[in-house]
Amino acid sequence: MVASTKSGQPLTSLKPGMAGFVARFTDQFIGGKLLSMGILPGSRVELVRRSPFGGSIYARVDNALVALRREEAACIILR
Q1: What is the pTM for the complete model shown?
Q2: Which of 39, 57, 66, 68 could disulfide-pair with 34, CB 3.0 to 4.6 Å?
Q3: What are the structural domains of the chain?
Q4: For residue range 24-49, what is the model confidence (pLDDT) as tens digits?
């Protein structure tokens, strides 16, 4: 079951299976990169899994799987 997030949570604070919608980005430079990858404000993001030892985060963004660095995922704020 997919749970909804509270307002203003970064993607890195979710547990696998939880989802939310992109509200904004905290870093303008990384935000531009994420926009070019198709991660847009309003996109549904579900945390699929985390790699061990704090590496990549795997997420489903509008039915596409993406791997994000921890720094990239931390700047995605969900509602």
Answers
A1: 0.86
A2: 39
A3: 9-78 (2.30.30.90)
A4: 999 999 999 999 999 999 999 999 99
